[in-house]
Amino acid sequence: MALSGANAFADDVSEPRGAITLAQALDAALNSNPELAASRYELTAAQARIIQAGMRLNPELNLELENFAGSGDSTGTRALETTLAFSQVLELGGKRTLRRSIAEADSDLVTLDLRGRQLDLLAEVTRRYIDVVAAQERARFADENATLARNTLDAIAGRVKAARSPIAEESRARIALTRALIEQRQAALALETARSALALTWGRVDPKFTTATADLFAFEPLESFETLAAQIERNPDITRFATNARLRDAELQLAQAQARPNVAFSIGVRNFRDSGDNALVAGFSMPLAVHDRNQGGIREARARRAQSDAELAASKTRIIGTLFALYRETIAAKERANALRSEALPLARDALAQTQTGYDRGRFSFLELLTAQQDLLALSEAGIDAAADYHRLLAELERLTSEPLTTQDLEAPLP
Questions:
Q1: I need a surface site. Which of 58, 85, 327, 404 has the fewest CB within 10 A?
Q2: β pairing state of 81-90 and 60-66
């Protein structure tokens, strides 16, 4: 979406504002996503095709003029014979019903495609929402790091003034502060980018919301892999193949029915100009299926039906493999996040506090203090990345199984 079109959107009071939850973001995207709105027209078109497929063939009105503009007794219109007839083709083999069945199955496929797009959108909104929450955490740690660097510089400046530390340490502290301020600005920019990316899912460029409320470190036990694998059958990508098989069955039946020729009946009135008499005429016609009995069409329909079963088997294998890989990665991300948050980060905080105390007493160098600060920041960012990875992977698992996998409250406020 072009930035120049940002002002083209009218202010909508239904757009999420202030501190928003994941549920609000999902609702806004489902209601206002431009691509999803465009996809709904395809469903309307498919439903219109059902109506058209159920229509009967139109009758025909035929007018024939014979024995005119000739010679002798047929000069001019003296011997003219006029026939006005009404004809109707009768479809045999239930072709109209089969055409409607094909259109209905096609409409079901479009419905499943729309459902798949909705699930894709929900997964994408969840990922972008997590990106916003993670960016908020990184921005918060960047602010804390900048404050810590500024306080450290002030403390070292006092030590240098009192001749307790060399001037080089103050220079290093200023460099550390400059680096921290750059990281702070980058974190703020990344947060704004993430917020805009989330707002784009409901068709906005400039987000009206301020924060995304969530606890990245709220983890709940996952269901077993066997349970998740059993839920794959409800995935629209799998359900689509069952509906596609029904479509192929209807196409095969129609191809077989088309081997039976239709018949046409006609009835009308003929007028004899020379005598002024009238007479009824009737007709019947039917193609002779001597050469073309739709053999190729039937064979193609059978091949398409077999192809549908083969694609279903291949899709199940592919989805199960993807599910297994995502499941293992989700568990690994959760373990990594827990280890960083409950083990590594407390140790890093203690190390920084001890280094700070030792530095104040002259037992540690400034370089050691700076290293301890950077270790704490790096571990904090790694913990955020691991927790964000867990929730992103969980969103992918939910997309594959078409339902939430845990009872965790991603919308809980940050502690």
A1: 58
A2: antiparallel
